[in-house]
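Progress against Task 2.4 (sequence-to-structure conversion) is shown through the following example record, which the project officer requested during the mid-term review.
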Amino acid sequence: MVKGNDCDPADKFTGLATLYDKARPGYPAAALSAILNHCGLAEGSTLVDVGCGTGIASRAFAQLGLQVIGIEPNNDMRAVAQSGNQELTGPHPSYREGKAEATGLPSACSDAVAAAQAFHWFDPEESLSEFYRIVKPGGWVILLWNERQEEDAFTRSYGDLIRTIPRAAGIELDRSQAGALLLSSPLFVSARQLNFPNEQILNETGVIDRAFSSSYAPRQADKAEELTKSLRKLFINHAHMGEVALKYVLYVYLAQKPR
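Structure tokens generated for the chain above:
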């Protein structure tokens, strides 16, 4: 759980689920393929996506043939995840209410446990103990985060603006450090980090939506309008042919339960 949080992290995205699902980046095909290969996951393998939110990662893994169980405590997020299954032509995830620290799943029920853009909201010791319990011997824990790559001029300016929002910098710092907790956990072995480039091509509305999909984005009308004006100005200064590229690195942290 993020230090200094003043409410249950499960409530942070109430009212934001539809915007979150529309505005957040996905995961590169090359990264998903590398994860499956590294973890020995194949069609029919079971993956539990903990803190699955609106199902962005759950759908991506399911479309690769995995049997995905999404665990999400927030009712709004879980409802959007379930509605997203209607658009899938192939395998689709199932979703259940639960928390990272208490998923409600049987022991040793999964070949892998993943948390995409979510682990920094969890109690690290309790959640890793739960992951250890529900993954099979030899199974894998997979943590993923899309983090901005601020060597790019627009992405750097966007990041500078976002960090002026109260609590944003602290949450981003906690997020950037959370993966190391898996790499150093005594519960798991064969820990490794993989990095992959990623990006979002956005129009002006997309930039605004991306910013306001964050838990720390202001909801008060005056502060929201101030941020919107700053985002519009930023877009105008960097846009080419009506678009900008928000650059990321997808950080993937992997560790295995001993056999």
